[in-house]
Amino acid sequence: MAFNHLPAGVHDALRPLSVRPVTHSVSMAHDQIPRQAGIRPSPRAVLGRLSTGAGRGARITHTEHLPPRPGTHADWPSAIRPEVINAIRAAGIERPWAHQARTAEHALRGESVVVATGTASGKSLAYLAPVLSTLLDGSEEPNGRGTTALYLSPTKALAADQRRAVAGFTAPLGTGIRAAVYDGDTPVEEREWVRQYANYVLTNPDMLHRGILPGHPRWSSFLRALRYVVIDECHTYRGVFGSHVAQVLRRLRRVCARYGSSPVFLLASATASDPAVAASRLTGLPVVEITEDGSPRGEVVFALWEPPLTELHGEQGAPVRRTATAESADLLTDLAVQGVRTVTFVRSRRGAELIALIAQERLAEVDRSLPDRIAAYRGGYLPEERRALERALHSGELLGLAATTALELGMDIAGLDAVVVAGYPGTRASLWQQAGRAGRTGEGALAILVARDDPLDTYLVHHPDALFRQPVESTVLDPDNPYVLAPHLCAAAAELPLTEPDLELFGPATEELMPQLEQRKLLRRRATAWHWTRRERAADLTDIRGAGGSPVQVVEAATGRLLGTVDAAAAHTTVHEGAVHLHQGRSYLVRQLDLDDSVALVEEAAPPYSTTARDTTAISILETTTEIPWGDARLCFGSVEVTNQVVSFLRRKLITGEVLGESKLDLPPRTLRTRAVWWTVTDDQLEEARVHPQALGGALHAAEHASIGILPLFATCDRWDIGGVSVPLHADTLLPTVFVYDGHPGGAGFAERAFHTAARWLAATRKAIAACECDAGCPSCIQSPKCGNGNDPLDKKAAIRLLTTLLAGAPEQPSTAE
Length: 818
Prior knowledge:
Layout: E1 3-5, H1 43-50, E2 60-66, H2 82-90, H3 98-108, E3 113-116, H4 123-139, E4 148-152, H5 156-170, E5 179-181, H6 188-197, E6 200-203, H7 205-212, H8 220-224, E7 226-231, H9 239-258, E8 264-269, H10 275-283, E9 288-290, E10 300-305, E11 309-313, E12 319-321, H11 324-337, E13 342-346, H12 349-364, E14 374-377, H13 383-395, E15 400-403, E16 418-422, H14 428-435, E17 445-450, H15 455-462, H16 465-468, H17 482-495, E18 498-499, H18 500-505, H19 510-519, E19 523-526, E20 529-532, E21 552-556, E22 562-566, H20 568-574, E23 580-583, E24 586-594, E25 599-604, E26 609-630, E27 633-653, E28 659-664, E29 670-680, H21 683-688, H22 693-710, E30 722-727, E31 737-742, H23 750-756, H24 758-771, H25 796-808
Parallel strand pairs: 3-8, 3-9, 4-6, 4-7, 5-6, 7-8, 10-17, 13-15, 13-16, 14-15, 16-17, 21-25
Antiparallel strand pairs: 1-30, 2-10, 11-12, 18-20, 19-20, 21-22, 23-24, 24-25, 26-27, 27-28, 27-29, 29-31, 30-31
């Protein structure tokens, strides 16, 4: 029997909310909270109030105080036009920070540059100053359109926010700057104006991939004059998504060359390791890096918070901690009552809805005016809903927001006092990015990381050095992934026939792929070029976010009203027939999932339970790329095929998590070809570790769960990007085997990173299991929230002995060096 642990791309079931009723109290009476305009409580004072009450103080496992930092000024380069400098001064910025001036210098010299400094360090102004100055120069040319610039952001919300920022600077500059957002929400009647007249277009990689590049003749005057391409929040372009964006940018460079332009790339990133290397891999060009942050920073108080154990017992009788969802909802409630403007970041859409709903209900008991000042913000909302929430947050109408990462990236949310992070977001870079949303005006800020009942979160709140004394991660992406590259070669050929000189632009794997694309009759060679041969749009061959198909529309059956969308990859586990679906605080039951038409029909209901999908997984080895002996054990890396099928779902009580019943499902299996790391052990090693045959399945399964939970410390991923399977006797290895694989076709680089850091990764895994205080295993060490086998069997003690024996054979200096 194989025990599986699936990535979000295959299995996105959410752990049920298991919250026992609590008597909620706040640390100060509502009428005692200072609310006068301009009075902001210090972060230490706010944290002190949160920690009062029975047992509250014990939940804080560590407090990190980051002292304030003074700023370092410089002068703008002389080439920046005085009108732009005056507009910046009118906005209250007398002189730039040193990193802003240096970034502008490189941009004006025509050098691609990445500025990788802290949150709220003014990266936007670093690229806006040279861009606006150059656009003004172009607007004075007597003929033609002048100079243009393209801005790319990973989210629509960030593009809309940047449009507002640009408007603030450009109002004094007259008609020389014509900025416009061009994305899926742009009305059709406005799009033609943008194509013909805008000289600063703000969009996202998705629209560039599906709209602008396939329709490049209509954009010819814009592309011919393109001087700058701004890539904001470029650290988010990692894994499969980053690999797709890298190829989209190569297509953009190729089309620009067709029109005689060669744009300079200006990239902005949160603090990252080797940003120039990552930016160069993303763009395919040499990039200069600016990493010394010259901006000032207010004091940051960063608390690590571990929810308490409850009296409840979960799967296999394991002790259960109060969920990060419930604990974060309490904190958001307390902060709102204190008048502290807060964003709570949560991993899932459902979690965002639940936190907002719980906080609203508890605030209604304190002050009936407060619930309306709390809301949820997530992907899948309709455009007008997102815009209204963004306006309310900017205006201060909203006091608290429970948001997914759709709101994380770079949005200038002025005036926030605190950020609550409900569960480690997967990387240190993302954690600091989210925490940096507070205190953006240079004042003090409070950040709280609330640990989930999860191996990695538990490890981090008890090992703060892993967060505060380690550098942020390198960005992992692989543009040469054939599953990524192939559809972009087809898209490029549809845009302009591919020639021999073009092949070098797309990378070394291109030459090998071209005959395969010809054989599949996707491309045809005529004379000196390859042509797209199909009637359908080549850009539709791939979803650059790796979702694997068109989003499923969630439609209210009685009215036909579109509630929102769900990624195709998550549809089997989240909107299957009988699933409970949450939207803006309302519960719906899914009555039908039509996979052919990508529609889930729902009706409003209030069931007293949540639903969790269960599935089966099989894995086969296609190719072993590398194999290294660890004593008698073997550590391997290569290609695998994973077959997964959702077979049923459980109904669980909302309060206790008790299973009410299981219903069968008839959904088709899905197959994934990807990359994996795996290790095997021998019978002699099992005997040495005293792992008896009846305990073997549980030992392997526990080691698999814990290793997946810890891997984000060593790779730029989170546990939902990866999956795993453990097998007491695998058909291909004929040995007990544990697999950890990338949850994306062709791989995303995460399993490869695990292979290269295997000794440290598996040592940390063993340490995390051994350090947990439970007796037989719990969600803090070896249980997984997305296990398709209901966390059965698991054997904590046998897993520790097995990993000890495995690590004893690890080379001291393996050839798998980083």
